[in-house]
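Input record, target 12 of the design panel.
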């Protein structure tokens, strides 16, 4: 029980630090970019451009705040489940999975804070070169975690190493 409590406490603390970092960058975007011309980092390639996203990725599902809140709650519940079932921090084999869980949690919560307090998500990172949708730090957390998770599950962990996630008794 002591290990499980520490897993949850450390997950929550690290996730909170990343959420605070995400929120800070969004505050900076509002203060320095809102209503202004884009801040060009690399001409024609990358710039900081203020945007308010009321939908999901690529502007889909505009105005479906309840749906996004539900998805965030499911992600949070799944993260709690994974951290509760995961071996303790002394088992370094699962560090990558811990990092993914923390990043996904922070990304979901960072955007959930925006949706709850403002009704939209502040985005400000824009790759002009490929005209990629504008995104934010929380989105970076989720995308990096998803990529790492695919690599870990596909190439690093063996199926039996993830059996602790099974809800079957005796495993």
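The sequence produced for target 12 reads:
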């Amino acid at each position: 029980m002591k290990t499980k409590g520490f897993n949850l406490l450390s997950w929550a603390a690290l996730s909170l630090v990343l959420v605070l970092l995400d929120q800070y960058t969004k505050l900076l975007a509002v203060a320095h970019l809102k209503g202004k011309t884009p801040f060009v980092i690399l001409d024609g390639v990358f710039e900081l451009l203020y945007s308010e996203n009321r939908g999901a990725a690529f502007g889909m599902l505009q105005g479906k705040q309840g749906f996004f809140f539900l998805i965030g709650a499911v992600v949070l519940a799944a993260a709690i489940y994974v951290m509760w079932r995961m071996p303790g921090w002394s088992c370094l084999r699962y560090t990558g999975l811990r990092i993914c869980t923390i990043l996904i949690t922070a990304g979901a919560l960072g955007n959930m804070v925006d949706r709850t307090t403002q009704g939209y998500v502040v985005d400000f990172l824009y790759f002009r070169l490929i005209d990629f949708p504008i995104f934010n730090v929380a989105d970076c957390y989720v995308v990096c975690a998803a990529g790492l998770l695919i690599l870990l599950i596909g190439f690093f962990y063996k199926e039996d190493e993830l059996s602790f996630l099974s809800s079957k008794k005796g495993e």
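The first helix runs from residue 2 to 33.
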